[in-house]
Amino acid sequence: MLDELVLCYNDLRSFLTRQLGCPHDAADALQELAVKFAASDRQFQGVANRQAYIFRAARNIAQDWDRARRRRRARDARAIVRGFGADPIVSTEDQVLAVQRLRLVSHALDELPERQRRALLMSRLGKFTFREIAAELGISESMVAKYIAAALRHCRDRLDDA
Prior knowledge:
Elements: H1 2-7, H2 9-20, H3 23-39, H4 50-83, H5 92-111, H6 114-124, H7 130-137, H8 141-161
Helix pairs in contact: 2-3, 2-4, 3-4, 5-8, 6-7, 6-8, 7-8
């Protein structure tokens, strides 16, 4: 079974990169696929087109990852909204402007690559250290700093454009 994966590894990696939009996520999803197939010796019994079966399994994993990503983004957006409590002294106009800015920030966060968004939210909302973020994302601390700087620049640019 794993031999079949090895034969179409490059095609699978390209396919998952297109599906997930991130080569790092694609590599992780490909590893998950390999673990799934390694766990069952009877995976291919009765399968006429093994390559189609593998790609369908890869698509299923990509869809699962996409659903999980959307749930995380919705959860993160709710956390951001909870961080902006309504102040009774603030005028209605200021509240409307704050909601508009919050929407702009939310859209800007959605535009970010997954790892940049996660690094920023872990840093700002989760109060994680760069070392903790680096361990979670499997990257260096200097890369965490670069991700956060790029994410903040992107959000600032989106707010400035508006």
